[in-house]
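Appendix C: a fully annotated inverse folding record. The material below is reproduced so that readers can follow the format used throughout the book. The structure is listed first as C-alpha coordinates, followed by the designed sequence.
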Protein backbone atom coordinates (compact mmCIF):
# COMPACT_ATOMS: atom_id res chain seq x y z
CA UNK A 1 0.00 0.00 0.00
CA UNK A 2 1.12 3.50 -0.80
CA UNK A 3 1.13 6.48 1.53
CA UNK A 4 -0.49 9.75 0.62
CA UNK A 5 2.79 11.18 -0.59
CA UNK A 6 3.07 8.47 -3.22
CA UNK A 7 -0.38 9.15 -4.69
CA UNK A 8 -0.27 11.25 -7.85
CA UNK A 9 -1.84 14.70 -7.41
CA UNK A 10 -1.01 16.25 -10.78
CA UNK A 11 -1.58 14.33 -14.00
CA UNK A 12 0.79 14.48 -16.93
CA UNK A 13 -1.53 16.79 -18.89
CA UNK A 14 -1.53 19.36 -16.11
CA UNK A 15 -4.97 18.46 -14.76
CA UNK A 16 -5.17 17.94 -11.02
CA UNK A 17 -7.18 15.33 -9.19
CA UNK A 18 -9.30 18.03 -7.58
CA UNK A 19 -10.75 19.00 -10.96
CA UNK A 20 -14.45 18.37 -11.45
CA UNK A 21 -13.81 15.87 -14.26
CA UNK A 22 -11.75 13.67 -11.92
CA UNK A 23 -14.13 13.81 -8.97
CA UNK A 24 -17.51 13.35 -10.62
CA UNK A 25 -19.39 11.44 -13.29
CA UNK A 26 -21.57 14.31 -14.46
CA UNK A 27 -24.18 12.00 -15.96
CA UNK A 28 -25.50 11.38 -12.43
CA UNK A 29 -26.90 14.86 -11.78
CA UNK A 30 -29.18 17.28 -13.57
CA UNK A 31 -26.52 19.88 -12.77
CA UNK A 32 -24.10 18.16 -15.15
CA UNK A 33 -24.16 20.79 -17.89
CA UNK A 34 -23.77 23.54 -15.32
CA UNK A 35 -20.77 21.87 -13.69
CA UNK A 36 -19.08 21.40 -17.06
CA UNK A 37 -18.60 25.16 -17.09
CA UNK A 38 -16.13 25.04 -14.20
CA UNK A 39 -12.73 23.51 -13.58
CA UNK A 40 -12.83 23.27 -9.77
CA UNK A 41 -15.92 22.32 -7.78
CA UNK A 42 -15.88 25.30 -5.41
CA UNK A 43 -16.19 27.61 -8.41
CA UNK A 44 -19.75 26.31 -8.88
CA UNK A 45 -21.01 27.18 -5.38
CA UNK A 46 -22.02 30.76 -6.09
CA UNK A 47 -24.49 29.88 -8.82
CA UNK A 48 -26.41 27.00 -7.21
CA UNK A 49 -29.42 29.08 -6.22
CA UNK A 50 -29.87 30.58 -9.70
CA UNK A 51 -29.31 27.15 -11.28
CA UNK A 52 -32.12 25.59 -9.24
CA UNK A 53 -34.55 28.35 -10.15
CA UNK A 54 -33.67 27.92 -13.83
CA UNK A 55 -33.91 24.13 -13.82
CA UNK A 56 -37.10 24.11 -11.78
CA UNK A 57 -39.03 25.84 -14.53
CA UNK A 58 -38.11 23.06 -16.98
CA UNK A 59 -38.90 19.98 -14.89
CA UNK A 60 -42.35 19.18 -16.20
CA UNK A 61 -45.30 17.26 -14.85
CA UNK A 62 -43.41 14.68 -12.82
CA UNK A 63 -42.56 17.39 -10.31
CA UNK A 64 -44.85 19.31 -8.00
CA UNK A 65 -44.02 22.86 -6.97
CA UNK A 66 -44.89 22.55 -3.29
CA UNK A 67 -44.20 26.22 -2.66
CA UNK A 68 -42.58 28.95 -4.77
CA UNK A 69 -39.29 27.60 -6.20
CA UNK A 70 -39.51 24.29 -4.32
CA UNK A 71 -39.94 21.37 -6.71
CA UNK A 72 -40.39 17.79 -5.47
CA UNK A 73 -40.69 14.72 -7.68
CA UNK A 74 -43.97 12.85 -7.32
CA UNK A 75 -42.14 9.65 -6.28
CA UNK A 76 -40.13 11.36 -3.53
CA UNK A 77 -41.13 10.71 0.07
CA UNK A 78 -41.09 13.81 2.25
CA UNK A 79 -41.91 13.46 5.95
CA UNK A 80 -44.53 15.92 7.25
CA UNK A 81 -42.04 17.30 9.78
CA UNK A 82 -39.36 18.05 7.18
CA UNK A 83 -38.70 21.65 6.12
CA UNK A 84 -37.72 22.50 2.54
CA UNK A 85 -36.79 26.13 1.90
CA UNK A 86 -36.52 27.76 -1.50
CA UNK A 87 -35.00 27.28 -3.91
CA UNK A 88 -34.78 23.51 -3.88
CA UNK A 89 -35.24 20.46 -6.10
CA UNK A 90 -35.85 16.99 -4.67
CA UNK A 91 -35.36 14.20 -7.21
CA UNK A 92 -37.21 10.98 -7.96
CA UNK A 93 -37.38 8.26 -5.30
CA UNK A 94 -35.53 10.42 -2.79
CA UNK A 95 -36.48 10.19 0.87
CA UNK A 96 -36.52 13.28 3.07
CA UNK A 97 -36.98 12.00 6.61
CA UNK A 98 -38.46 13.46 9.76
CA UNK A 99 -37.06 16.78 10.96
CA UNK A 100 -34.75 17.25 7.99
CA UNK A 101 -33.95 20.96 7.56
CA UNK A 102 -33.28 21.95 3.95
CA UNK A 103 -32.53 25.63 4.30
CA UNK A 104 -32.49 26.38 0.58
CA UNK A 105 -30.25 26.35 -2.48
CA UNK A 106 -30.30 22.56 -2.34
CA UNK A 107 -30.27 20.45 -5.50
CA UNK A 108 -30.91 16.88 -4.34
CA UNK A 109 -30.73 14.13 -6.95
CA UNK A 110 -32.57 10.86 -7.44
CA UNK A 111 -32.56 7.96 -4.97
CA UNK A 112 -31.01 10.06 -2.20
CA UNK A 113 -31.60 9.95 1.54
CA UNK A 114 -31.77 13.16 3.58
CA UNK A 115 -32.13 11.90 7.10
CA UNK A 116 -33.52 12.89 10.43
CA UNK A 117 -32.15 16.20 11.74
CA UNK A 118 -29.93 16.56 8.68
CA UNK A 119 -29.39 20.14 7.50
CA UNK A 120 -28.56 21.15 3.92
CA UNK A 121 -27.60 24.60 2.61
CA UNK A 122 -26.22 25.60 -0.80
CA UNK A 123 -25.40 22.10 -1.99
CA UNK A 124 -25.50 19.79 -4.96
CA UNK A 125 -26.15 16.15 -4.06
CA UNK A 126 -25.64 13.80 -6.98
CA UNK A 127 -27.93 10.81 -7.44
CA UNK A 128 -27.71 8.13 -4.78
CA UNK A 129 -26.18 10.33 -2.07
CA UNK A 130 -26.94 9.39 1.53
CA UNK A 131 -26.78 11.89 4.39
CA UNK A 132 -29.07 9.87 6.62
CA UNK A 133 -28.48 10.78 10.28
CA UNK A 134 -27.68 14.10 12.01
CA UNK A 135 -25.51 15.51 9.21
CA UNK A 136 -24.72 19.10 8.31
CA UNK A 137 -23.79 19.70 4.67
CA UNK A 138 -23.24 23.30 3.62
CA UNK A 139 -21.59 24.93 0.61
CA UNK A 140 -20.58 21.50 -0.63
CA UNK A 141 -20.90 19.10 -3.55
CA UNK A 142 -21.33 15.37 -2.93
CA UNK A 143 -20.74 12.99 -5.84
CA UNK A 144 -22.63 9.94 -7.03
CA UNK A 145 -23.47 7.52 -4.20
CA UNK A 146 -21.32 9.42 -1.71
CA UNK A 147 -22.23 8.60 1.89
CA UNK A 148 -21.79 10.44 5.18
CA UNK A 149 -22.08 8.40 8.35
CA UNK A 150 -24.17 9.42 11.34
CA UNK A 151 -23.07 12.72 12.85
CA UNK A 152 -20.47 13.54 10.20
CA UNK A 153 -20.51 17.15 9.03
CA UNK A 154 -18.95 19.61 6.63
CA UNK A 155 -17.47 22.67 8.30
CA UNK A 156 -17.83 25.48 5.79
CA UNK A 157 -16.28 28.53 7.44
CA UNK A 158 -12.92 29.09 9.13
CA UNK A 159 -12.81 30.30 12.72
CA UNK A 160 -10.99 33.49 11.67
CA UNK A 161 -13.46 34.08 8.79
CA UNK A 162 -10.67 34.37 6.21
CA UNK A 163 -11.14 32.90 2.70
CA UNK A 164 -10.88 29.12 2.44
CA UNK A 165 -7.74 27.61 0.90
CA UNK A 166 -7.54 24.07 -0.47
CA UNK A 167 -4.47 22.40 1.02
CA UNK A 168 -3.04 19.75 -1.29
CA UNK A 169 0.31 19.29 -2.96
CA UNK A 170 -0.27 22.88 -4.03
CA UNK A 171 -2.31 25.62 -2.38
CA UNK A 172 -5.56 26.56 -4.13
CA UNK A 173 -7.17 29.84 -3.05
CA UNK A 174 -10.93 29.67 -3.39
CA UNK A 175 -11.60 33.34 -2.68
CA UNK A 176 -14.65 32.17 -0.69
CA UNK A 177 -15.35 32.71 2.99
CA UNK A 178 -17.71 29.73 2.89
CA UNK A 179 -16.64 26.50 1.24
CA UNK A 180 -17.36 23.10 2.74
CA UNK A 181 -16.34 19.75 1.32
CA UNK A 182 -16.22 18.17 -2.12
CA UNK A 183 -16.74 14.42 -2.10
CA UNK A 184 -15.98 12.41 -5.20
CA UNK A 185 -18.20 9.60 -6.44
CA UNK A 186 -18.61 6.74 -3.94
CA UNK A 187 -16.69 8.56 -1.18
CA UNK A 188 -17.62 7.26 2.27
CA UNK A 189 -17.18 9.35 5.44
CA UNK A 190 -17.26 7.58 8.79
CA UNK A 191 -19.50 8.47 11.70
CA UNK A 192 -18.88 11.67 13.71
CA UNK A 193 -16.18 12.92 11.38
CA UNK A 194 -15.56 16.59 10.60
CA UNK A 195 -14.58 17.67 7.11
CA UNK A 196 -12.84 21.01 7.62
CA UNK A 197 -13.40 23.91 5.19
CA UNK A 198 -12.09 23.14 1.71
CA UNK A 199 -11.69 19.38 2.17
CA UNK A 200 -11.61 17.32 -1.03
CA UNK A 201 -12.20 13.55 -0.85
CA UNK A 202 -11.33 11.57 -3.98
CA UNK A 203 -13.47 8.94 -5.64
CA UNK A 204 -13.94 5.63 -3.81
CA UNK A 205 -12.06 6.92 -0.76
CA UNK A 206 -13.09 5.96 2.78
CA UNK A 207 -12.66 8.05 5.91
CA UNK A 208 -12.46 6.33 9.29
CA UNK A 209 -14.99 7.33 11.97
CA UNK A 210 -14.11 10.17 14.37
CA UNK A 211 -11.73 11.76 11.87
CA UNK A 212 -10.90 15.44 11.49
CA UNK A 213 -10.03 15.81 7.83
CA UNK A 214 -8.33 18.72 6.12
CA UNK A 215 -6.93 19.15 2.63
CA UNK A 216 -7.00 16.79 -0.34
CA UNK A 217 -7.36 13.04 0.17
CA UNK A 218 -6.55 11.10 -3.02
CA UNK A 219 -8.90 8.75 -4.78
CA UNK A 220 -8.99 5.05 -3.90
CA UNK A 221 -7.55 5.69 -0.45
CA UNK A 222 -8.35 5.00 3.19
CA UNK A 223 -8.01 7.93 5.58
CA UNK A 224 -7.14 6.49 9.00
CA UNK A 225 -5.98 9.74 10.60
CA UNK A 226 -3.73 12.75 10.03
CA UNK A 227 -0.59 11.54 8.27
CA UNK A 228 -2.00 8.03 7.96
CA UNK A 229 -3.58 7.69 4.51
CA UNK A 230 -3.06 4.51 2.55
CA UNK A 231 -3.90 3.59 -1.02
CA UNK A 232 -6.33 0.72 -1.44
CA UNK A 233 -4.26 -0.88 -4.19
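Designed amino acids, in order:
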Amino acid sequence: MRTRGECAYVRGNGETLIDIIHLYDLSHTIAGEYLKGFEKPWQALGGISALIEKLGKTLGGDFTELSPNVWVHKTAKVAPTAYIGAPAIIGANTEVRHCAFIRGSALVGENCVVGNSTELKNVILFDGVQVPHFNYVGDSILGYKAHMGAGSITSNIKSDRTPVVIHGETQEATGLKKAGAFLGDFADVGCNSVLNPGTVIGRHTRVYPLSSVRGVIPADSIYKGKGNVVHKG
